[in-house]
Amino acid sequence: METGLGIRQENLKESIIINPETNEKIVKKGDLEFPPRKVWMKTFGCQMNHHDSERILHHLKDLNFSATSELDEADLVLFNTCAVRDLSNNKFYSQLGEIKHAKKKKNGLIVGIGGCVAQTEGKELVKKYDHLDFAFGTDVIDTINDMVFRVYAGDSKFTINSWDRSENFSIETKISHETPQAFVNIIKGCNKYCSYCIVPYTRGKERSRLKNEVVEDVKKLVEYQGVQEVMLLGQNVNSYGKDNGESLAELLIDLDQINGLELVRYTTSHPYDVSDELIAVHGSAKKLSKHLHLPVQSGSNTVLERMLREYTVEHYLGLLEKLRKAQPEIVLSTDIIVGFVNETESEFQATLDLLDSAQFDSIYSYAYSLRNKTRAAKMVDNLSDDVRGERLRYLQKYQLGIQEKIRAKLPGTEHRVLVEGFGTMGGIKKWRGRTNCNRVVHFLPESEEQNLKWNWVDVKITSATALSCQGELLNVHGRRVLQ
Ligand code: SAH
Ligand code: SF4
Ligand code: F3S
After folding, report:
1. Where does 50-118 show beta strands of DSSP type E?
2. Which of the chain's termini has less CB crowding within 10 Å, N or C?
3. Over the stretch 302-321, which tens digit does the pLDDT of each residue have?
4. pLDDT tens-digit profile of 269-294?
5. Pocket test for ligand 3, best of 79, 82, 188, 190 (most atoms within 8 A of CB)
6. Which fold has domain 181-407?
7. Domain map of the chain by residue range?
């Protein structure tokens, strides 16, 4: 059987042999031997890309690769790229340049690029950069081992960026870590085609996994891999299930029944697809996070129209009102694009007004960045990058003022937190965790020896600024919440 890579399936059969001198495991695939090797991987972009990278590393274990953070140790270098804004592109290009020297220093080093830039520009990049061996798109990551095999078999300078056209989107979550948090991809692609956005071109058409498959997948993660918190992922998770007559609201209700699962988050949402059923679930589902990230992009109806966002500011604010009514403790955050094509002063002012009305707990904000292929790229744009930069800085400062006031109310409140690790605050090492509503809290351990990583603890907030919260430890519940 052909694999689509020009390699016959029979050749890919794997077996494991042990080197009697070193006792090392060697994977045999076809005629090739794979002794233990190291992969260095750099991931840019969103959580979906990070999730994909984890999946890639998981597959590569079968070819005897283990991950390293030391570039000098690497036999295989992989970039998982992001194309959403110029800045993310530029970071990747400068690192790709540096790898050229690493390749000169180490004979046999293999370099590949995957992700969103590779999906649309892989072919040109492989041609342009001598030190690039192969490129692969976003829909073929599960064949990474076949691609790496192909390079070791002596065939390089190829690009694979085909779309998976099979009827159902069906995968099993693969995690390569041993932490209680896991990303679970429930829908891929995006059909929205917002006029500024490259994602539909890099991730393809929307396709959802079946609800039962996701539920079984999460049950297994909880039962066999100690997962307690899942982040459901998709470019537009609210569209989940439309292709199969199912819905995100129904999925969340089912996940709420899983014993041992403590917390469910999801990202990212599009306001157009937030249904009344979903809002109701925010009030009723016990395990659903009390945080929602709901990108608005602009507070001006004329800008939203040019962005092809399919909702008005009034509709958006109406959604926030309904969500807050259904779940009074809900904490909201958003994405804003400043300086979209021909944005006027008054359109910009409307976004500042929206920040006042919406009272977001935090925002991600970006200056508009032209992306080739998108509809906005064809619009004549008279706004300068200087103005965009100025407006972005102004908006960020404005929001910090709002956040400071919201967070000034937090001291004295108590929260259940999953401890994620250490952070350094003013030179002092403190534990760091996230509240159910996604605020990061730092707090001191009770003693030097105390190891709280991945424990559930209760903390009381003692002080808060616009960007961080300090707390004191009240109780330690261990690795599971006490029921
Ligand atoms: N699917 C999500 C977000 C995808 S990209 C949604 O629909 O909201 C993440 C964020 O990057 C977007 O929310 C947007 O704020 C920003 N973004 C996307 N394209 C951009 C561009 N061309 N210039 C600046 N910011 C952009
Ligand atoms: Fe991009 Fe819009 Fe799709 Fe989000 S919904 S990924 S912003 S096209
Ligand atoms: Fe970037 Fe692709 Fe994610 S463009 S934001 S890595 S979907």
Report:
1. 65-67, 76-81, 110-114
2. C
3. 999 999 999 999 999 999 99
4. 999 999 999 999 999 999 999 999 99
5. 82
6. pyruvate-formate lyase- activating enzyme (3.80.30)
7. 9-160, 181-407, 414-478
